[in-house]
User: Fold this.
Amino acid sequence: MAGVTISNNKSKSMFAKKGAFNAQAFLDSAGVARKIKEFKKAELVYSQGDAAKSVMYVQEGGVKLSVVNEVGKEAVVAILGPGDFFGEGCLAGQSVRMGTATAVTHSTVLVIEKSEMFKVLHEQHDLSDRFISFMLARNIRIEEDLVDQLFNSSEKRLARTLLLLARYGKEDQPHGLLPKVSQETLAEMIGTTRSRVNVFMNKFRKLGFIKYNGGIEINTSLLSVVLHE
Assistant:
């Protein structure tokens, strides 16, 4: 399934927009001890069961978070883009990774050791506020995903997932561009089959909600599928 790689235009100012804290610029300028790692498409960032010793921040590209149960069935938890933290469970006492993180396209990730992250969060209130806001937003998203799975049709779940992947409603991100994600991954995210996803994607294309133009372009009119009762 074709797609457009997520990109991140890094600002030199910690406040690129009025009142918007730029965590990337802060991490670049505050002397935070961290490693910068690059990952190829489909390369593992970490595996379920690995020691949890660091927090990570997506600088460029995209990362898929997934978990596997005892019988080997995989469930995709989230697709993250530039500006997102992950691996934060180590701050809450997790000794091992509860899931697997995989690069969905060529990605650059900042790796911050747990002790350093604790130090920075304690000393730098701007970053601490940004991190807390991210975690609260993540919790809200998890609750919305649960409601979505319990009460909405697979077609509506797919529409919502596409809008979220295209960063709909985020002022600091380009709208309408879908990261490279396969129909199999979309099916895992919404709890249905690849064939069903293919049917819905063709339907969305015919209705003008999405467009294939060297990648997947999402029209905001797709929101009508989510809002339709």
